[in-house]
Amino acid sequence: MDYQDRAAILNIPSLIINAFFGIGKLILGVYLLSGWFIIIAVYYLLLCAAKAQALYKYTVAKSIEDPKERHCMEHFVYKRSGTFLCLLGLSYFLVCLRMYFVGDVILYRGSLAYLVATIAFSKLGFAISGFIGKRHLKGPIVTSLKMFSYTDAMVSIVVTQYTLLAIENPANAISSSAMFGMGCLQVQHVLLNDRN
Questions:
Q1: What angle do CA 13, 121, 44 make, to 5 degrees?
Q2: DSSP state of 34
Q3: Burial class of residue 180 (count of CB atoms within 10 Å of its CB; 0-12, 13-18, 19+)
């Protein structure tokens, strides 16, 4: 197993976790009639679809013998991953707009707030280690998977900021986290443009 294979396999646990988050939040959103949960569920399910598609195409690309054909297929997946990232950005932009204008978010209290923070910082740590530790891996599909991990980590940090600020001052936590989330989307947009 080479480094590219290991990099791809390390994305499977986050795919499974995000699928559970997405389905769970969708069920809660429908049950509670919460637009907040439904929009976040759409974000997580889009992220899962994007990662699953990239992982599946990675396994298909491994079986292609012709290097030219393999590169064309990987480059096509890379471009399609950019479309998925745009859809992820749009869905999270809707989350931020809803936070800013409606403010009907769920407040996390007590140990649940610390669990949210722990998950977010873990995702950020894995994303950073993925970028630094695997920076020499230039395969288009592996690069796409690294960008998905980075995007997921940035969103988790916004949720953590909101959760921790909401403990002290819920009104300011909502608006400042919404603006911070929109700022993270701008950073993601710049990074995507630099890569293309």
A1: 50
A2: -
A3: middle
List for the chain the helix, strand, coil content (%; round to 5).
85, 0, 15
Distance CA 74, CA 161 (A): 36
Q: Which residue type sits at 38?
A: I
CA distance linking residue 75 with residue 80, whole number of Å: 9
pTM: predicted TM-score of the whole model, two decimal places = 0.74
Of how many residues is the chain composed? Answer: 196
Terminal CA-CA length for the chain: 29
Instruction: Quote the longest CA-to-CA distance of the chain.
Output: 59
Residue found under tokens 């699953």: 52
Per-residue model confidence as pLDDT tens digits over 66-89: 888 888 888 888 888 888 887 777
Residue 110 in 3-state DSSP?
coil
